[in-house]
Design a protein that fits this description.
By secondary structure, the chain is α+β, with helices and mostly antiparallel strands. Strands 3, 4, 5, 6, 9, 10 and 11 form a seven-stranded mixed sheet that branches. It has a two-stranded antiparallel ribbon with strand order 1-2. Strands 7-8 form a two-stranded antiparallel sheet. Helix 3 crosses helix 4. About 2% of the residues have low confidence. The structure holds iron/sulfur cluster.
Length: 371
């Protein structure tokens, strides 16, 4: 069967033995799955905190970048209670470099909800996990299946690609209607007894074997179930993803200098990006009032600032063009219309104080500029 149109959605069916697929996938994963710190921690301690933390860190972040941060984080905050009691700044400092910091504010808030001085009350099912701040369907299914054996199937980009090939679906995998159909297929396919291993196995199969280009079908444990392998259609199943349009945003980042010090500002909670992070004044460009991300900066201030460079940056699906400005001022109490906190930091400590890559890139430009 070949699926080339959304009108054929109802015809997407499992045409192979579920028992054979599960057995082959689990045997492969349990003998050849990658050894990763959170998997080792789970085997040793059986603490859902480790699984949850790793899943949050892995959102939109590659495994290689996550490993050192995961280890550093757990060394400082080894239990969920430690996380609940940590300060927001401490948590931000620990996850420096991973980006998309709001996920860690949610993680901390959820830790506060779950832990009291003597007890942690874990949600057990994916449905219960979904009620926590910052937990979406993917994380809920991953954590509940691995840590609590809940029969909740994950569907990420890797799983979608594997399904497209197994079932010879020659469509872009990110079509919403197809995702819905795939979710019901994978709900049917997931193993009852080892849902966590099944989820990790099928994702790892997509990451390591059934890769976007040149899948390694010879090494694939489930090739006997795969239509694309039989029909040699791996290069057209799936079709390229439909491009989602990126939002282009132009920003000003204003570095406020006061002698050998720099003044950092806390972004407000209503900011579009990097909520509550400490950094440089961030405003949208070409706006009459220079209002952006919750900051209001009066025109006069920017007129006395000097532009020193620009750079490109991505935050989630936003493509940002940032201009970097410097304002030298002798005043420590700046009246520039900011509603949130400000702090004066010695220049040699700035790098340590900046968590967001957006600010770090701006500081790098400042460090190399002759101002
Ligand atoms: Fe992917 Fe090839 Fe395995 Fe099919 S046989 S699932 S195309 S790696």
């Amino acid at each position: 069967m070949t699926i080339k149109s959304l009108t054929q959605l109802d015809q997407i069916k499992l045409h192979f033995s579920k028992a054979v697929f599960r057995h082959r996938l689990l045997t492969w994963y349990q003998s050849q799955g990658r050894s990763l710190p959170w998997r080792e921690d789970w085997v040793k301690h059986k603490d859902p905190y480790h699984i949850w933390l790793s899943e949050i860190m892995l959102q939109q972040t590659v495994i290689k970048a996550v490993i050192p941060v995961y280890k550093r984080f757990l060394k400082r905050l080894p239990t969920l209670r430690d996380l609940a009691l940590a300060t927001d700044d401490e948590v931000r400092e620990l996850v420096r470099g991973l980006g998309y910091y709001r996920r860690f504010s949610f993680l901390k808030k959820a830790a506060e909800l779950l832990s009291t001085s003597n007890k942690v009350t874990w949600p057990k099912t994916a449905k219960d996990w979904l009620s926590l701040p910052g937990v979406g369907p993917y994380t809920a299914a991953a954590v509940s299946s691995i840590a609590f054996n809940d029969r909740a199937a994950v569907l990420d980009g890797n799983v979608e690609r594997v399904l497209c090939r197994l079932l010879n679906v020659q469509l872009p995998p990110n079509l919403p209607q197809l995702k819905k159909r795939f979710q019901s297929i994978v709900d049917e396919l997931i193993d009852d007894k080892a849902p966590g291993d099944f989820n990790q196995g099928i994702m790892e199969l997509g990451q390591r074997i059934c890769t976007p280009t040149q899948p390694n079908c010879i090494a694939c444990p489930v090739s006997v179930c795969c239509t694309a392998f039989v029909k040699k259609t791996q290069s057209i199943a799936p079709q390229p993803k439909l491009k989602t349009s990126k939002v282009d945003i132009a920003l000003n980042l204003l570095i406020v200098k006061n002698g050998e010090h720099t003044i950092l500002f806390q972004r407000p909670n209503k900011a579009k990006f990097l909520k509550e992070s400490w950094g440089f004044v961030t405003t949208s460009l070409n706006s009459d009032e220079l209002i952006g991300d919750g900051f209001t900066l009066n025109q006069k201030v920017l007129q006395s600032a000097k532009k020193i460079g620009s750079f490109k940056h991505n935050i989630t699906n936003h493509k940002i063009a940032a201009s970097v400005w410097v304002l030298n001022t002798k005043k420590t109490n700046l009246n520039i219309g900011l509603e949130t906190g400000a702090k004066k930091v010695q220049d040699q400590l700035i790098e340590k104080s900046l968590i967001a890559n957006l600010d770090r890139k701006a500081w790098k430009i400042y460090s190399h500029a002759s101002v």
